[in-house]
Amino acid sequence: MLLRHTTKEVTERSALTVNPAKTCQPIGAMYAALGIHGCLPHSHGSQGCCSYHRSTLTRHYKEPIMAATSSFTEGSSVFGGQANMLEAISNIFHLYTPEVIAIHTTCLSETIGDDMPQIIGKARDEGKIPAGKWVIHANTPSYEGSHITGFSSMVKSFVDYFVTKPATPGESSSRSGQVNIIPGWMEPSDYREVKRLCSALGIQTVMFPDTSDVVDAPKTGTFQMYPTGGTKVSDIMTAGQSKATIALGPSASKAAATQLEQKCEIPSEVLELPIGIRATDRFVEALIKVGGTVPDWLTAERGRAVDLISDVQQYLFGKKVALWGDPDQLVSLSEFFADLGMRPVYVVTGTPGKRFDKRMAAVLGDRVPEAKIRQGQGADMFLMHQWIKNEKVDLLVGNTYGKYIARDEDIPLLRHGFPILDRQGHAQFTTAGYRGTMRLVERIVSLFLDRKDRDAPERSFELTL
Amino acid sequence: MAELLEKRRLHVHQKGKGKFTLDCERPSLAGAVSQRACTFCGSRVVLYPIADAIHLVHGPVGCAAYTWDIRGSRSSGPELHRLSFTTDLREQDVIRGGAIKLEKSLRELIATYQPKAAFVYSTCIVGVIGDDVAAVCRTVSKDTGVEVIEVNSEGFKGTKKDGYLAACDALNTLVGTGSTADISPLSINILGEFNIAGEAWIIQEYYRKMGVEVVATLTGDGRVEDVRRAHGARLNVVQCSGSMMPLAKKMKERFGIPFIKVSYFGVEDVAKALYEVADHFGSSELQRRAEDLVAEETAAILPRLRSIRGELSGARAAIYTGGAFKAFSLVRALRTLGVRTVLAGSQTGNADDYSALAELCDEGTVIVDDTNPMELAQFLTELKVDLLIGGVKERPIAHKLGVGFCDHNHERKRPLAGFHGMLEFAEEVRSTLLSPVWRHVHRTPRTALPRPSEGK
Predict the structure, then answer these.
(1) Run of H or E residues at A41
(2) Are B124 and A108 in contact (CB under 8 A)?
(3) Spatial separation of the C-alpha atoms in residues B223 and B59, rounded to whole Å
(4) pTM for the whole thing?
(5) E strands within B262-382?
(6) Sheet holding A68-69, edge to edge
(7) pLDDT digit string (tens) for B124-171?
(8) What is the ipTM metric for this complex?
(9) Which residues of A touch B159 (CB under 8 A)?
(10) Which of A17, A42, A66 has the CB atom closest to B61's CB atom?
(11) H or E, element range at A346
(12) Whole-angstrom distance, CA of residue A283 vs CA of residue A269
């Protein structure tokens, strides 16, 4: 029993976190920054932070992950990190020649009070930033929020820094049919799917961030510091001319959408992530609203997804699911599972925020009254395991850290979310859109039926299921 | 040679090009994409294998989350060290101080688990907000009777090496507090062995067969009680001298226990490790048993090693490790397999390490300190490397270039220590070097190894 140290009795914990269901802001900022073309993320803090973030992303993607660090020493922690940051900017442009340096702060630099705009301004005055290049920043101390809020802050800073308000608002330009897509924290496979759907409906978009062809770069036999992917800054700069913004995943994307609205008067619609039939329908409807038309083949694709679901509904009905991870993912997944006839009974996110409860209520309604939903303090994998020890579920859905529970309680695990440290496929195969729906359903049903085959005594071991 | 940032030139040396000098042990360049980690990382990896202690990270969630069970240090008993405990400091704690939260967390943990000891790791922010961690540890120790030990591991203090020092200090408070009754005079402690993939068990078995008692293994499959009575051993056998040498020196100072430096990687080095222990005790019986053991074990693996050597001769390898000590063993182990080392480097080596490394290596080998991905990739291409040995952040670089890889870092899944480990190492090196998958990419710049005949 790997988790034999988990006690069955649930006690309220106000100080201790055991087996977290979140991680800290900076890694989210790093991942968002990787979604910009030619961007080098920069960690303003100790070397350890940058190393851990890169290592975790590398384990998840099996890709080299580039990021620089200010390499704080005890000296910088006392006197401030300005000297380190200025030297870093200089060195980075000289040696690594990125288009953008995207700085995110850490608990250390925030606590000692480094003023990033001031430092960046100084770097510009001292000629350390070559013409046409950018240094941007986001404030992401690790003692606030979670990796999702760090991601959200960095995406908002793309708007702050790159997007210019058009000289005459409302004036038509070659870009005025364009729609901004803020896609949220997704896998590169999902970013590809979102683009495919937009293109299917004939919508011209600028989408940021976009880590496809960055963290799923092909193997060419050469090592490229800046892969070909990522949204180009020159494209983001035109976001102020777009006619609308669609933000996917409120926790990750609302901030940037709101900022676009305030800065450039661009109306925005904030949706849940397009995972599952209804969430994808809503995304498609939003695209129709901004002028898209649905091609027959996409309707057929939806039809195929619904067909698959109908053919397997008997294996899913009433199955109890425990899920953990990021708020945006959990809300869409919960709705989807309930639509399949399953019961999402335990939902845990370490990311704090009361709006999560409201969003969950909105998608579940009164369909799963027994659901236990927790966010923030005390919402961790230890709690999840305790719940399960008291009353089991049929399926676990979440990151690799669920595998201990899966093994100890003998429950199948569908790996989804971040980080996934022990399997591949998430970067290659989407779970968004109708296509992603089919993959999710296929994997879930296979898990249940493999289990059925495994546990069936000989006499009940069937050929066809 | 690869075009390097001016400031990096001093950290790279090619053997044969003039007198050996290498700049090292410096903080990384600000803005460098260094592969290095921090003080906390060093402390964590040294202490966390102690399986019956509480390991509580006092800081924001990240430090604990990123170190949650990512290391294959195995335990034969408790798995308490595989849970991630943290005070998850929030903004309010940063403003008001986190000491109260720390005390509460500690008390909850001790009440629930009654551990043999508790380690409290300080992180960067704790150093800045000035929590009196020592005071909390003392108070809780006194009240609960469980020893609570502070680990001064604030990340900004330096590299992993400074973390090792903090960890050794923490261990030092435990050593000497237990009973040394019934410890054989032929006894050792194994230091710097973390039981990755069960390697400590392999090594302990060798010593047991020789008739030597292992009092404590620090810290693989570790137990608090063993650490407490470690001062009962007559000799400290120190592997990975970077991480545990400070403790060995302390134990010599406090208890007069001598130490020797050994490595368990590679046939020559393992044999040497066993002989040196036998020689230390001056027992001819021990020496005979050591010789028998070495003869038996080598006879078992030599035929396979020879066969593999035949397949791999001429292959070129690059080594990049955390501490420099391991690189020596790897150069020798690779030589056993007919593989030539063309680049060797580390994150934290010192001047003596690099000097010795250069001595050991062939002419033309590039020695490098604190490298970064761009530089490493350039070297791999220019030096026509077939195999890279490194850790989690080096692997994808190798794979992108179509270069084989062996993880010799703490995430390795196969035991690579001891005689058995040498065989595993040979098999792993062989399977990555001979895998046909590298041929799918036509633009691989290096020449393919001679392969057993199959369709090209």
Answers:
(1) strand A39-44
(2) yes
(3) 25
(4) 0.94
(5) 316-321, 340-346, 366-369
(6) A68-69, A39-44, A100-105, A134-138
(7) 999 999 999 999 999 999 999 999 999 999 998 888 889 999 999 999
(8) 0.92
(9) 47
(10) A17
(11) strand A343-349
(12) 10
